[in-house]
Amino acid sequence: MPPVITAEGLYKVFGRRPARGVEALRQGRSRDELRADGLTAAVIDASFSVDPGEIFVVMGLSGSGKSTLIRMVNGLLPATDGELRIGDEVLSSMSPAKIREVRRRRISMVFQHFALLPHRTVGENAAYGLEVSGMNRSDREAKATEALEMVGLEGWGGYRPSALSGGMQQRVGLARALAAGTDIMLMDEAFSALDPLIRRDMQDQLIELQQRLEKTVLFITHDLNEAMRIGDRIAMMRDGRIVQVGTSDEILNEPANDYVARFIQDVDRSRVLSASSIMEQPQETLGAAQGPRTAHKLLRESQTPWLVVLKRDRTPAGVLWEDDVARAVRDGEEALPWSTEHGMPVVSHDTPIAELFTLSAQNLSPLIVTDGAGHFAGVIPRVTLLTAAGAALSEDDDAAPALTTSISPEGDAR
C-alpha cells in the first residue's frame, strides 16, 4: 500500500525572504550563517514516508526541528519548499480551506499538555472535535463514550477534567483523537508530562490500540528509550535535518554517524533488542515423523547435544537430547524419545532480550524462537544469550563521552 504520509525535500525557514534561505542552504550555507541574516532554518531537506498502520517516531533534542515538522504535517505551518502529501493529496499546495477540510477528515492530534477544556465534562472534551465538525449531539456522544471505553475511562464522561489525574487527562486527549475517527494520529510529546510509571502504561495502551485499530501514528519525542520502545521506525533529527531513519535494531546496530552513535550509547539494549536480533539457525532440525536413528545420525554430524524437532507446518514439536536418543537407539525404540526433564521454552521473535534470562535459567534447552504465526524461526542457546549480555556490558564500558549539543534559541517551538 502507498504511504499515508510522504515528505520530500521539506524546508521550513522563518524570517524575511525565506526562499532565499532555502537557496542558501542548498548552496551549503549553515544554520548559524543563516541566523546572522535574520533567518531561522527549522527544517532542512527532510524526506521520509509513513506506512499505513505504522508508529513512526521523530526523535530529537530541543531545537532539532521535530515540533515544526509535525506542525507542517498537520497543516498548521506551510512548507517553505518541498512537497508534503497525505495519501495522494498534496498538502503543501492546498488552500487553507482545503487543508482544514483534510485535517478534519484525516488527521487528529494529541497534545503534550492535554489541551482539555476545563469548563466541559470529560465526555464533552472527547466529543469536541466531532462537535466542531458538525456531528449531531447523540451521535457524537455515542462515539465519545466508545472512545473513552477504549482508553479505560468508562463511567468518567460526566466528570470535569480537574477530577482526573494527569494520566487520566492524557487518556481523555487520546480518546478525543480516537473519537474523531481519522486514520492518522499526530502525537507531539504526548507522554512527556507524565510520571514514569504512568508514561509506560500510556505507551503500552498506545501500542495495544494501534494494533487493534491499525491507526497510522506520527509520534514526536525527545526520549530515546520511548522512541525505541514504541516506534516501528524512528527518524533521528539534528539541527533541522533527518540524519537517520530505521528500526530500533538498525539504529542501535548500524548508527549512521558519530552523532547517532553517541546518542544511543546509554540505551538499555536488552530492553530494546528482541529475540530475533540474537537468535541463530541450528545446523540441523528433525522432522517429527522421523525416528531415533535419523536423530542419532544428525546429532553426530552436527556435533551438538540437542536437536529441534519440527512438525510438518514448521511449528516446534520439542527438543531431543543426545543421551535420550542414544538410549532409544540402543534399546531399539521406534518412537522419538521425548524427555520432560529439559523442557521446551518457546518465545516470540519480538520478545525483549531482558525477558529471556529468567526463562533460560529455568530450562536446560535452548530457547525456541517463533515468528508471528508460531512457525519456527531460530534458537537462542544459553551461551548465545550470555554472550549478547556480555557484549552489551562491554559496549557500555567503552562508550564514548556523554553527548553534548547546543540548543538553538527557538527551542521546542521550532
Description:
It is globular, with a radius of gyration of 26 Å. Helix 7 crosses helix 8. The protein has two domains: 223 residues, 3-Layer(aba) Sandwich (Rossmann fold), CATH 3.40.50; 119 residues, CBS-domain. It is built from 17 helices and 16 strands. Strand 12 and strand 13 form a beta hairpin. The longest helix has 18 residues. With 414 residues, it is α/β, with parallel strands linked by helices. Strands 6-7-8-3-9-10 form a six-stranded mixed sheet, sandwiched between helices. A four-stranded antiparallel sheet has the order 2-1-4-5, sandwiched between helices. A three-stranded mixed sheet has the order 11-12-13. The two termini are 32 Å apart. Helix content is 37%, strand content 21%.
Structural class: alpha/beta
* Name given to the CATH homologous superfamily of the largest domain: P-loop containing nucleotide triphosphate hydrolases
In round numbers, the mean pLDDT is 87
Unreliable sequence segments: 398-414
What percentage of the residues does DSSP assign to strands (E)?
A: 15-25%
CATH topology of the largest domain: Rossmann fold
CATH architect. name of the largest domain: 3-Layer(aba) Sandwich
Helical fraction equals 25-40%
Q: Compute the number of structural domains.
A: 2
- Count up the helices: 17
**Biggest sheet layout:** 6 strands, mixed
The count of β-strands is 16
Strand order of the largest sheet: 6-7-8-3-9-10
CATH class of the largest domain: Alpha Beta
Distance between termini?
Answer: 32 Å
Shape: globular
Radius of gyration: 26 Å
